[in-house]
Specification:
The protein is of the alpha+beta class.
Length: 253
């Protein structure tokens, strides 16, 4: 495995700006998601906003992917392809957005409830968000990668969910996916030491049922094998001497 790249102050500034676009797009998208909307509509909305801010949708062209976002509904975990699917009241929708600006990337995902959702679904959303927050809290200089993974796993499993084991978070910078891979399960103290200047996309994926997954015939959409509900949140996080900085939290530009 290649070494984890430590970003310079200038690189961090570029990543920060790309992340602010992503945060702004997700915030705007959250306000327009409604029953009756197709996932294609939602994707076009995000694509337009990324470009409006001078960014490029970084998912387009990634391994032949053709859309600005991944939109994964209910039992779809990640990498759902925007299309004619109509959002319905009660759905939970993971919207994953990536932008590149001046050569550097930002990546974040939010699972939104469409209208009123079941209390089971809202508990899954709350727990996944809490798992991400717990993981981010461990993204500190001197900790190990396993501290992040273990914190995510603990919150998830305490909540009664399973974590997906075949998909990971990742380093991010000039490339969307850089080392290291960040599992959502692991043991404290294991894995690489965290250093200032590392930028990590931490992305818990929690299933209501089992952790097993399947990829649909479209070659992209990853679903739960048992068709149970799944939820996904992601932030791009900088490890700094001042503690974790969530770069995709503040909508800017
Ligand atoms: N946001 C996804 C991730 O975190 C990447 C989407 S795959 C793509 O890994 F093809 F859509 F880019
Ligand atoms: Co990601």
């Amino acid at each position: 495995m290649a070494a984890i790249k430590l970003k310079t102050a200038e690189e961090i500034e570029r990543i920060r700006k790309a992340c602010q676009i992503v945060a702004w797009v997700l915030k705007r998208a959250g306000k327009v998601i409604k029953p009756g909307m197709t996932t294609k509509d939602l994707d076009s909305f995000c694509d337009k906003l990324i470009r409006e801010k001078g960014g490029t949708p970084v998912f387009i062209g990634y391994r032949g992917y053709r859309h600005a976002t991944c939109i994964s509904v209910n039992s779809e975990i990640v990498h759902g392809i925007p299309g004619e699917k109509v959002l319905q009241t009660g759905d939970i929708v993971s919207l994953d957005v990536g932008a590149k600006l001046a050569g550097y990337c930002g990546d974040s995902a939010v699972t939104f409830p469409v209208g009123k959702v079941s209390s089971k679904a809202s508990k899954l959303l709350r727990t996944t968000k809490a798992a991400l927050t717990a993981g981010i809290k461990q993204a500190r200089v001197g900790n190990h990668l396993g501290d992040i993974s273990a914190a995510v796993q603990k919150v998830s499993e305490t909540g009664g969910y399973t974590v997906v084991r075949e998909l990971f978070g990742h380093g991010i910078g000039a490339d969307l996916h850089e080392d290291p891979l960040i599992p959502n399960f692991g043991r404290p103290g294991e894995g690489p030491l965290l250093k200032p200047g590392m930028v990590l996309a931490i992305e818990p994926m929690l299933n209501m049922g089992g952790w097993k997954i399947k990829t649909l015939a479209d070659g992209w959409t990853v679903v739960t094998a048992d068709k149970s509900l799944s939820c996904h949140f992601e932030h791009t996080v900088l490890i700094s001497e001042r503690g974790p900085e969530i770069l995709t939290e503040r909508a800017g530009l």
